[in-house]
Amino acid sequence: MEKINIVLADDHVLVRNGIKAMLDSDHDIQVIGEAGNGAEALEIAKRLKPHILVLDIRMPQMTGLEAAAQVSQYSATTKAVILSMH
């Protein structure tokens, strides 16, 4: 069975590391890239074409909402999931 490939984007490294640790504990999931802002997340998604792009809603340079709205331009099969502490 193919693993679910994920790119994780959050501007807080500790949060990103925590989410990555939880996802890495599932043998069916693989975090293939990490980003600190939405623009970087889009560049990584363009190159790696993950199944899922996990985005923090508020990040510098480009928000998760903005990145989610644009990801289909770079990777038609990538789905976006937005995280928020609000």
Tell me what you see in this structure.
Helices cover 40% and strands 27% of the residues. By secondary structure, it is α/β, with parallel strands linked by helices. The protein has a four-stranded parallel sheet, sandwiched between helices. It is globular and about 35 Å long. The termini are far apart. The relative contact order is 0.23.
Identify low-pLDDT runs.
none
Largest sheet: 4 strands, parallel
What level of helicity do the residues show?
A: 25-40%
The dominant shape is globular
Assess the beta-strand content as a share of residues.
25-35%
* SSE arrangement, N to C: EHEHEHE
Distance between the termini: 35 Å
Computed over alpha carbons, the radius of gyration is 12 Å
Q: What's the total helix number? A: 3
- Oligomeric assembly: single chain
Alpha-beta classification: alpha/beta
Tell me, rounded to a whole number, the average pLDDT: 95
Strand order of the largest sheet: 2-1-3-4
Strand element count? 4
